[in-house]
Amino acid sequence: MAQMKFMCDAERCIECNGCVTACKNANDVEWGIQRRRVVTLNDGEPGEVSISVACMHCDDAPCMAVCPTDCFYKTDDGIVLHDKDLCIGCGYCLYACPFGAPQFPKQNAFGERGKMDKCTFCAGGPANSKEEEYQKYGANRIAEGKLPLCAEMCSTKALLAGDAQTVADIFRQRVVQRGHEDGAWSSLEGRPATADELAYDATRQQ
Amino acid sequence: MNLLTEWLHTWRVPLLALLVLLSLGMAGPVLAQADPEGEIATAVPATDADTWRQVRSGETGPNYRDSRFDSNYNLINASGETWRQIRNRWVSPFGLIAICGMLAMIVLFYLIVGRKHLDEPRTGRKLLRWTALERSLHWSVATLFIILALTGLNLLYGKFLFKTLFGDAFWAGMISGSKMLHNYLGPLFGVLLVIILAKFLVRNLPSKHDWTWFKQGGGLIGKGRHPDAGFANGGEKVWYWLLATAGLVVIASGLVLDFPNYGQSRDAMQWANIVHAVGALGLTAVALGHIYIGTLGTEGSLEGMATGYVDETWAKEHHNLWYEEVKHQAADADETLGEESTPPQRSS
């Protein structure tokens, strides 16, 4: 099985927050919650750099290790998901997470935080029906054979999502060739993309 | 001559324009041909190792931006892993060792030494030791303590046992119930503990004979050995001061965790959680000792906290200095039944 990973190429990220918007739109996330964030270091200085962050679906996920209800699990694709029926909103996953990914709809007295919400790699979560799944966790694009919308929508292809090996290969190529050989528009079949593939032709039906 | 001047005069502007266009045309290709190698050599790198080192350490400079609403999180929560390691590798296992160790020691002690019976027969005359208010305070605090300890232990260890044992559906209710009880009863426990500490403060001020009491091990083992003790003996005072120090720290750190609405930082809650867990596990272990000594371990103690009255013999043996003060108040058992309506005076 694949090992799904995100990778954000900080050299390419232009801080457009398109990933944030795409994610909110794809997953219909609750008001006040933003599963993805864009962090900018040295804003306005030489060496300014931006990077898009969400749940990174860690191999050794700290959230899983500290959860008192054991509500997290890893899918066969290496995606870290959680069961909102088990979540008690204690906030421990937030204390432990290296990326500030878990968020809570509330922040009230007596530790009333509501159910934790985080990036699902657009893989939904445990539910009895598709509707319930969408309502609780958002889109399950993985089940439809699609990658997370944030990465799919990234205008500069800074944010990559997919199997760790493929993502690493693309990034390695970028580092070696200072840009992917076809600008990283990338057909993944090991050959450079043709001019036809680079420009989407709306008149052509496939 | 004149003709040339005139011609130039007429065409000067268009000629200049043409020259500008030509020069642009020449320069264009030159710019486009700038070599990538040179560009790399002179470019300011966007990110270097230092940037990532800074990120890894969790630092945020003045020019750090986060696009998330109301977020003050750094890019990498470096202390999160520290918290995880302290909690999972140290607090969890050693808390379990402390509590199970305490239980094992109590069981062993009971099996080997057994219950501490009264050395002399009871006289049947009773002394008021705990007023109704003190007893209700004690049992309220005790009940809350036990609920908080059990729910707290469930939050720390429950998933290893009950989740597989009962299945997800039951576990979901059990653990969310634990959290609710813990979070709502915790502050109530805090308030009551402060009240009971204030009420019992004077009796628990350390005195000289406490030292002797400790040197003789509280007379826990052996028959007829009873070191001097006032209303509270050395052991009771230690339990009091543990609650007055560690107990208050546990309450304070618990409040930090329980009220995220005040916007305390994630780091503050990490430390509060460690302090809370260490303090609470320690107190739970000691509480087991307190419970044993107060119930199974000592004849006549539980009836004091249950009815308010202790037997004269018990008072003489366990709290001789207090007994000397109050022995004139000793009353026959049947006289003490009207205690609720006319509470007798008791000096401590």
CATH architecture of the domain at 101-116 and 125-333 in chain B: Up-down Bundle
Distinct helical segment count of chain B: 12
What is the spatial order of strands in the main beta sheet of chain A?
Answer: 1-6
| Measured distance between first and last alpha carbons of chain A | 29 Å
SSE order of chain A, one letter for each helix or strand? EHEEHEEHHHEHH
Question: Any idea of the CATH topology of chain A?
Answer: Alpha-Beta Plaits
Per CATH, the superfamily of the domain at 101-116 and 125-333 in chain B is Transmembrane di-heme cytochromes, Chain C
Please describe the topology of this protein.
The complex is a heterodimer of chains A (206) and B (348).
Chain A: E1 4-8, H1 18-27, E2 37-41, E3 49-53, H2 62-66, E4 72-74, E5 80-82, H3 92-96, H4 130-137, H5 149-153, E6 159-163, H6 164-177, H7 195-198
Antiparallel strand pairs in A: 1-6, 2-3, 4-5
Chain B: H1 2-32, H2 36-42, H3 49-56, E1 65-66, H4 78-112, E2 125-128, H5 132-166, H6 168-200, H7 208-215, H8 234-258, H9 266-297, H10 301-307, E3 309-311, H11 312-318, H12 320-326, E4 331-332
Helix pairs in contact in B: 4-9, 5-6, 6-8, 8-9, 11-12
Main location (chain B): membrane
Membrane topology (chain B): Multi-pass membrane protein
Organism (chain B): Litchfieldella qijiaojingensis
